[in-house]
Design a protein that fits this description.
Number of helices: 2
Strand order of the largest sheet: 1-7-6-5-4-3-2
Distance between the termini: 36 Å
Helix content: 25-40%
Number of strands: 7
Strand content: 35-45%
Mean pLDDT: 92
Protein name: Polyketide cyclase
Largest sheet: 7 strands, antiparallel
CATH superfamily of one domain: START domain
Pfam families: Polyketide_cyc2
Organism: Gordonia phthalatica
CATH topology of one domain: Alpha-D-Glucose-1,6-Bisphosphate, Chain A, domain 4
Radius of gyration: 15 Å
């Protein structure tokens, strides 16, 4: 099963990338969460191999995700290792320039369902995450971070 959501932001692609790739910043757009990061051993601590553990009041279990692809200002992919209600959950966020100077943010996810209706749950998850990230990007833009 899969889910795809595309949104736009006034942020430049560089500024949008900062919001997408800064794992510690998740606490600023996902309410009542904590993030523990095991950094990548590569050039960027948020890059391929980084592991983020996301816990919080609204989460029934700690979510453990490993970054599997990291192309600065373009693409971030990750795979869930624990804490999600699906098997083989993988997601990718792709950023594309818009003619107006903003950025298109495409979030897609695939997973193997366990129960009937899991496809609806997956779509709701991706839509919810994209909405929260979009709010964070709007706040950054309002604070003057639209261009970088």
């Amino acid at each position: 099963m899969s889910a795809n959501v595309i949104r736009t932001t006034a942020l430049s692609r560089d500024a949008a990338w900062q919001a997408v790739s800064d794992h510690a910043d998740i606490v600023n757009w996902a309410p009542r969460t904590n993030v523990e990061l095991t950094p990548s051993t590569g050039d960027d601590p948020n890059g391929v191999g980084a592991v983020r553990r996301i816990s919080g009041l609204l989460l029934p279990a700690t979510i453990v995700e490993r970054v599997t692809e990291f192309t600065p200002t373009e693409r971030l992919s990750y795979a869930a290792e624990a804490g999600v209600p699906f098997r083989n959950y993988e997601a990718t966020i792709v950023l594309r320039d818009r003619a107006d100077g903003g950025t298109e943010v495409a979030w897609s996810a695939t997973a193997d369902g366990r129960f009937p209706g899991d496809d609806v749950l997956l779509r709701g998850l991706v839509l919810g995450l994209q909405t929260l990230l979009g709010r964070r990007m709007s706040a950054i833009a309002k604070a003057g971070g639209a261009q970088s």
